[in-house]
Inverse folding.
């Protein structure tokens, strides 16, 4: 098991959790940098991503077997509590003995659980920035998470927009710091 990957995963979840807990009652409908997504939509998206982890990693189920179980709004009347439980379950699934050695059936094909976990770290880091912007919180990301996310996304940044899930990469300003470069790679203007 790669403890450093699990550490980054835990840090990314903690960062996003901190932001979720900072959402004021009047901010759930606020806009985020993700076009068409409110704060609630963004938190719902990342919650759904966490809900997928236990069936795929722990139970070895396919996406088809899980079906539409996580479609729609999963947050209900307790978005913070639902997020907390989903994040804890994802953390536990990735942390199981032998979990990182498993193959996981994702939408684009079977991949190693370690690669899946790395993608989840990237997603949580970038969306923590989005959520910070949406709620008006400090949007500086921890250096170790920025470094990890850059290492994850750099090899395939140019192809992300082709997935339909990301905006095309932007050219960062000359002399941009690593956080700004990371955000530009995933189509965000810092």
């Amino acid at each position: 098991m790669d403890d450093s990957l699990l550490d980054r995963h835990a840090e990314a979840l903690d960062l996003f959790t901190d932001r979720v807990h900072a959402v004021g009652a009047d901010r759930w409908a606020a806009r985020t940098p993700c076009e068409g997504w409110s704060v609630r939509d963004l938190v719902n998206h990342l919650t759904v991503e966490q809900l997928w982890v236990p069936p795929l990693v722990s139970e070895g189920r396919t996406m088809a077997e899980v079906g539409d179980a996580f479609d729609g709004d999963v947050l209900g009347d307790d978005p913070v509590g639902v997020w907390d439980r989903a994040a804890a379950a994802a953390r536990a699934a990735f942390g199981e003995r032998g979990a990182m050695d498993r193959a996981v059936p994702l939408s684009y094909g079977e991949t190693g659980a370690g690669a899946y976990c790395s993608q989840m770290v990237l997603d949580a880091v970038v969306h923590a920035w989005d959520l910070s912007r949406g709620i008006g919180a400090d949007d500086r990301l921890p250096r170790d998470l920025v470094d990890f996310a850059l290492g994850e996304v750099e090899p395939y940044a140019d192809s992300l927009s082709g997935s339909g899930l990301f905006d095309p990469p932007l050219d960062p300003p000359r002399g941009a710091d690593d956080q700004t470069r990371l955000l530009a790679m995933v189509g965000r203007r810092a």
The chain has one domain: 3-142.
